[in-house]
TrEMBL record:
Gene Ontology CC: plasma membrane
Topology in the lipid bilayer: Multi-pass membrane protein
UniProt-listed InterPro entries: dCache_1, DGC-Regulatory_Protein, GGDEF_dom, HAMP_dom, Nucleotide_cyclase, Rev_trsase/Diguanyl_cyclase
Species this chain originates from: Collimonas arenae
Domain GGDEF, residue spans: 406-540
Predominant place of localization: membrane
Subcellular location: Cell membrane
Recorded superkingdom: Bacteria
Residue ranges of the TM segments: 289-309
GO MF terms held by the record: catalytic activity
Designated name of the protein: Diguanylate cyclase/phosphodiesterase (GGDEF & EAL domains) with PAS/PAC sensor
One GO-annotated biological process of the protein: signal transduction
Residue span, HAMP domain: 311-363
Length: 563
């Protein structure tokens, strides 16, 4: 289960946040900019197309106007009275430059019928042109004129008529030369009508003066009236003279991008229109691509983080695991391996330093505990057992005696005349003597025996598990009288000392340790009273102390300095 507090989750969350933030900022700032650029590009492309078409139409119109003007200028006025020759002349010109697929007509100056026409079209010769706007204009104009777009009376095809006056030498109009061009004639407006813009867009050619669609990609619109004012605002603006690009909603409710370009020679304008859904499709594609790439970047980022993070953090989790195991006591405290020179490695180094310090403190604590333990059971000066330890051993001996019937003896020893040593040579010398005395008491003792110093110059020896308690105790007492009585040498000072020993030999089970110690003490005092340098035995039955002068007994002399 994902731990939301974990470092891994936080790094992943940070990574995802950064990616989303980066992409979000791009979407907020860069995408609208790119969209505007694409929108402008689509609009300018559409305007270019509209301008190209408009220029093409203008060129076609001008070419026809020029041709009709030139033909009117070179038509020999004399031919006006020779219809056959006039027809032949027209035929020859039309074959040379077939811009008027609806035919060339030479109209009587009063407008009643034609003088000649090519190709011949039935009924034209009797038509009355006098009331036609373009005919009237042609009579007065110096330059060629053009009719409004209209349907041909005979066939109903959409046409325009170009006309120019034919004048004689005295500049009198002798005829009007007219050329009929079908709007969908090849090379005229066919490019506009046959082509679509993109997949769903198209073109319109509009005459604002006539409020008519002159041409359209959709043939059904040709020569239909334009929408009334107020229906389409962009159309209204274009009708009023606006040329450029705009977005509008057409009659079917489809939003369109429309570009308007003028056809200067006629006052018409071309509309290149395309649904915005198609025109701005690259923008939608761009947005879609950005969203998909965002998703991809997110997925890849997540995948990389999920793959890499456990590997990067593995030393950390291993270190934590090792620390936990050490804390639980599964392993002893030990340094962690430092595998990498990074933050995790530095953490391991820090932990190892902590381990080293802990080990040092642990060792110091153990030494201190050992020392305290020793002090609790030993005499600080001589290293012999102290009183509590003696009492403990004595209690054990009493228990064993009660339980097993074993015998033991307690020897209470007190140095004779120790005070003068202190007084004469100082406490340090006294201490050194006490240490030597302790050594002599300890030498040759059995493992089970206990030698303790009670304090001052008092020593107690517990002889445990004796076969013959009396004999053994006396024997040891004699031994001590001899060894302690041997000369001492402390820093060149030599002297002798003796001891008085009180011996307790408990026989019954009912005595406590302190009672036995007290018996030995009393016996020791008895030995002192009896002259020192000897031992006394406490008699349990009488409660008396029996002195047994030692063979080693001798008078305690004042210590002498060595020579
Ligand atoms: N140097 C030294 N002297 C101590 C220590 N503890 C006690 N003493 C001295 O040892 C002496 C023991 O006194 P006593 O046993 O009365 O003197 P003593 O001269 O041995 O007298 P008797 O036992 O009657 O022969 C005293 O002077 C204490 O001050 C110690 O740790 N070091």
């Amino acid at each position: 289960m994902m731990n939301f507090q974990s470092l891994k989750f936080r790094i992943i969350a940070l990574g995802v946040t950064l990616v989303v933030l980066g992409i979000g900022l791009r979407l907020v700032f860069a995408l609208p900019f790119a969209q505007d650029q694409l929108r402008d590009l689509a609009a300018s492309q559409q305007l270019s197309i509209a301008s190209y078409i408009a220029h093409d139409i203008d060129h076609s119109i001008v070419a026809r106007q020029t041709l009709i003007g030139e033909l009117a200028g070179i038509l020999p006025p004399a031919l006006v009275r020779r219809p056959d020759e006039l027809t032949a002349w027209l035929k020859e010109r039309e074959r040379l430059n077939p811009l008027f697929n609806g035919g060339l007509l030479v109209i009587h100056p009063d407008g009643n019928g034609t003088l000649a026409s090519y190709p011949a079209a039935t009924g034209r010769e009797d038509l009355d042109f006098s009331g036609r706007e373009w005919f009237q204009a042609a009579l007065k104009a110096d330059a060629p004129v053009m009719s409004r777009p209209q349907r041909e009376q005979a066939g109903g095809d959409p046409i325009i008529i170009m006309a120019a006056p034919v004048r004689d030498a005295s500049m009198r109009v002798v005829a009007v030369l007219a050329g009929v061009a079908s709007l969908d004639a090849p090379g005229f407006l066919d490019r506009l009508q046959e082509n679509q813009l993109g997949a769903t867009g198209g073109f319109l050619l509009i005459s604002p003066a006539d409020k008519l669609f002159v041409g359209a990609s959709d043939p059904s619109m040709i020569l239909k009236p334009t929408p009334p004012q107020g229906v389409n605002l962009l159309h209204d603006r274009a009708m009023a003279g606006y040329r450029g690009v705009g977005v509008t909603v057409n009659a079917e409710g489809v939003e369109e991008l429309s570009a308007m370009a003028s056809v200067p020679s006629t006052g018409w304008f071309v509309v290149a229109r395309m649904p915005t859904a198609e025109a701005f499709r690259p923008i939608a594609a761009l947005r879609g691509f950005w969203l998909k790439s965002t998703l991809l970047v997110l997925v890849v980022t997540l995948a990389i983080l999920l793959f890499m993070l456990p590997r990067i953090l593995r030393p950390l989790t291993e270190a934590a695991q090792a620390m936990r195991e050490m804390a639980d006591g599964e392993f002893e405290l030990r340094p962690l391996p430092v595998r990498r020179n990074d933050e995790v490695g530095s953490l391991a180094l820090g932990f190892n330093y902590l381990v080293a310090r802990l080990r040092e403190k642990e060792a110091a604590l153990r030494a201190s505990q050992d020392r305290m333990e020793f002090m609790a059971h030993h005499d600080a000066l001589t290293g012999l057992f102290n009183r509590p330890m003696l009492e403990d051993r004595l209690q054990q001996a009493v228990a064993r005696a009660e339980h097993n019937g074993t015998r033991f003896a307690l020897l209470f020893c007190d140095l004779d005349g120790f005070k003068p040593v202190n007084d004469r040579y100082g406490h340090n010398v006294g201490d050194a003597v006490l240490v030597q005395v302790a050594t002599r008491f300890s030498e040759g003792r059995r493992q089970i025996d206990t030698v303790a110093r009670l304090g001052g110059d008092e020593f107690v020896i517990l002889l445990a598990d004796l076969d013959d308690a009396h004999l053994d105790a006396v024997s040891v007492a004699r031994h001590y009288l001899a060894t302690i009585g041997a000369p001492y040498d402390v820093g060149g000072i030599t002297f002798t000392l003796s001891i008085s020993i009180g011996i307790a030999l408990p026989q019954g089970p009912s005595l406590s340790g302190s009672q036995i110690l007290s018996q030995a003490d009393m016996a020791m005092y008895q030995a002192k009273r009896a002259g020192k340098n000897q031992f006394c035995l406490f008699d349990e039955e009488t409660g008396d102390c029996v002195a047994e002068p030692s063979s080693a007994a001798q008078a305690l002399d004042v210590p002498t300095r060595a020579a």
